Amino acid sequence: MIAVWSPTTLLHDPSAEIWIGLRTPGTEVAERVSRIREAVPAEWALAGEVPWSVLTSVHSEGLLRHLRDVYADWVSTGYPQDRVVPYVFPTPAMLGGMPGRMPVAVHGRAGLYAYDTMTLVGPGTWEAALMAASAAWTAARRVSEGLAYALCRPPGHHATRDGYGGSCYLNNAAVAAVTLRAEGFAKVAVIDVDAHHGNGTQAIFWDRDDVFYGSVHVDPGAGWFPHYMGFADETAGGTNLNVPLAPESGDEVWLSGVARLCEAAARWGAEALVVSLGVDAAADDPESPLRVTRDGYFETGRSLGGLGLPTVAVQEGGYHLETIGPLVAATLRGMGGQSLS
Fold this sequence. Notes:
By secondary structure, the protein is α/β, with parallel strands linked by helices.
């Protein structure tokens, strides 16, 4: 297995999240990277920088330039907060159908592409997000060497074409998928096994018939992020499959959902696979209630590897530092056809 990473991904330090009006400690921390690297034996390669043209095939120029420039603009004003913290968002409710204008003040512009208050921009955020996307791009270009793993941090599957949120800034899985298409694979499946629905990936590929998106995740109808998307009736005419699960489901129900996604991707005729590999459905993880075990993640990997497709695994969530490394390693071992021990 080839594994790709960049030390630049350590530069992003969210410092905090603003959640239900409270400033709480950030959970998407740089130590996630070191814990995974310690646990995953692999040939580690450094990411090359993804071309701008690849980024613009996934995201708008406006979002990219905003993420690149907004922190410097924020700091230049001397605001007391050391991270970009939006307070106003140009939602349809605010604009009322009117076109809206570009705000002059950076504190007005701060929420232009953000869709939550949790996902703060600080020093190193753009550089880390860029190299996370670069890791996905590099891994996808090397997938012919076998299973390729991209240690992406920050994660990406909540980022849409024009927006960031859910601790995600650039959509790494989408970058991998469009890169596989450019490498000559006519039909690419993205299977998302993060505990939360990848609303960004679903939205990016919703109108395309060359990329299939499938996700198993905690039911947003039970009160979980992303709340507004991730329901079973979102099918995009057959290229989208969501399998929402009730809290406390455990391995058996989880693995049944994974099997449904694999069967759907095979029926659709996928020629290559991107796995949005989150391990935050685990029992010890603070960010979800799904209670998947290490054995469950190994079997998840076995199901995905059983498709027999060129595969890029892209790191998404997983926030319990003591177990994130072993869980990622177990999943990758399953995908690679190895034993768990």
